[in-house]
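Page 37, top half.
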Amino acid sequence: MSDRSGTATASRAERKERTRRALVDGTLATIEDRSFASVSLREVTRAAGIVPTAFYRHFASMEDLGVAVVEDSMRMLRRVMRDARRHPSAENARESLGLLVGQIRDHDVQFRFLLRERNGGVPEVRRAIATELRLIVHELVQDLERIPALQDWPTDDLDMVANLIVNTMLAAVVDLLDVRPNSVAERDVVERALAQLRVVMLGMGQWQPRTAVRERGPAARG
């Protein structure tokens, strides 16, 4: 009896997850060239192949669904950023940018959704994107703290570098979405982003942590 009960529970959970996935995918299918705010619950449920009343078994509101779409879409960017921050070097940066290009080409709609909703649209969705980006920056700061040469850096300085790296990648996403795949323009975007990341890395080598500058201040005046 317990085995059958467990199997039935697992089956219900699997069906629920499939329907939830269908709602997320259905939302993405309707927003290729539209804002999330313009999409109705009826459109989403029709695209997912369920009746509108079933929607509320999975999400409390359309805003709740929008947050789920953000979390699903941000996983790709986080994966690329996770690979990039493991070994902060020019060679790794090129590989990471290559991965980013591949992710953008495979998931064009998700990236367009994130960029379109980042600075406008539904407040809950906008806040969810900001929260996910802060998490990426925070994870990058934690990895930078493990680099021996950066262990004396204050968190504010590491946060500044992490934001520069993340913003460089986001700027590359914006530009890549506007150029054709495998074009000269695409290669130019990658090379420009790589150059910008190299400047950040070179700057890190020359940067004097602000705590160290303050510590030397009194001695210099004396």
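Page 37, bottom half:
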Amino acid sequence: MLILITVILLLSGLGLVFASNRYGIIVVYTGLCVAAAKASLPTVSTLIFWGIATVIVVILSFMLPKSISGSRRGLGYIAGAALAGAMTGLVISHAWMIIGGVAGAILGGIAYSKTPAGKALGFPSSKFLNYLCAKGLPAVIAVCMAGTALLWLIFKI
């Protein structure tokens, strides 16, 4: 039953992150905590680390201007590439999952900036970098927490 709850929380949280909802990352973290309860493998320091990352992302999302925090512009590229990069890196190791997620978000942002709609971000510029950080950080943290929960559940099953 906990596995089903974990999967529902992770998928709905990732969906909310893809929709630029600031609370999506909290849902993903809740899924990570439920996975930890099921797996009984993780250390408390791992949960504290991801908890602090979640709090930082939520606080930053409240500090951003409403026009940026609510924008979904290019989020499919950024979050989708972060998800692809994290899952590709997960094949190698947990550390590579994080590296793959970051690399994916950066490449997704660059890919979006090359589209006609993304030209407004003006790659390379500080405006592009700020937008990439505002949208890429929550996406990377969310997909890495989901990948961590997936690892814990796979090793428990």
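Margin note: The chain has a mean pLDDT of 87.
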